[in-house]
Amino acid sequence: MPDPILPAEQRGGFRFRGGHRALDLVATLAARRKPAPRELLGAPGDVERWLVAAGFASGAHATEADLFTARRLREAIHDLAVARIAGKSGPAEARADLNAVAAGPAAAPQLDPQGALAWHGDAAGLIAEVAREAVLLFGGAQALRVRQCEAEGCAILFLDTSRAHDRRWCSMAACGNKAKVAEFRRRKRSAG
Ligand SMILES: [Zn+2]
């Protein structure tokens, strides 16, 4: 069976199901709830690819320090998001890490000659921009719309922008369908 995941959710080998760049960064540690999580940010080049896939089409060069910062930021965003979902403010260490990265010199949004958005800055600046977006998310009204996928074993975070605020899956095409099939089988068993 072909993978039903929509191409738009998958770019540069990374998943983008969160509807928000800061939440998508968390997905770079794949299979987080499973016994063997997969680190997708294994080298500075992975950070460069993620930044491009995340919409910063600048081709910024990343260093080992940028790799460390990106992972530290990722875990801070994860811990704060999970805490928010549980109705808590989050661990102080995660908040300190997020704030530290967000206070770094950020990249500048600029208009290119075609009138399109272009980010000017190095990898550290782009990572700082992701941290600022996370601060705006958690500190704003949308913090209440951060969710974690309800599919078994899926840890993907997303921003629920549905009108009824009742989105349950990171991806309808992947986890949503799987859950529906499982539910159908359960019902069939109990009926038969
Ligand atoms: Zn999911």
Short description:
It contains 6 helices and 8 strands.
Structural notes for this entry:
The structure is a single chain. By secondary structure, the protein is of the alpha+beta class. The protein has 6 helices and 8 strands, in the order E-E-H-E-E-H-H-H-E-E-H-E-E-H. The chain has helices spanning 21-26, 44-53, 64-85, 92-102, 123-139, 172-191, and strands at 10-11, 14-15, 29-30, 38-39, 108-111, 117-120, 146-148, 157-159. The strands form 4 sheets. Strands 1-2 form a two-stranded antiparallel ribbon. The longest helix is centred in the middle third of the chain and has 22 residues, at 64-85. The two termini are 27 Å apart. The model is unreliable at 1-5 (pLDDT under 50). It binds zinc ion (ZN).
Which key terms come to mind for this protein?
binds zinc ion, two-stranded antiparallel ribbon, 8 strands, alpha+beta, 192 residues
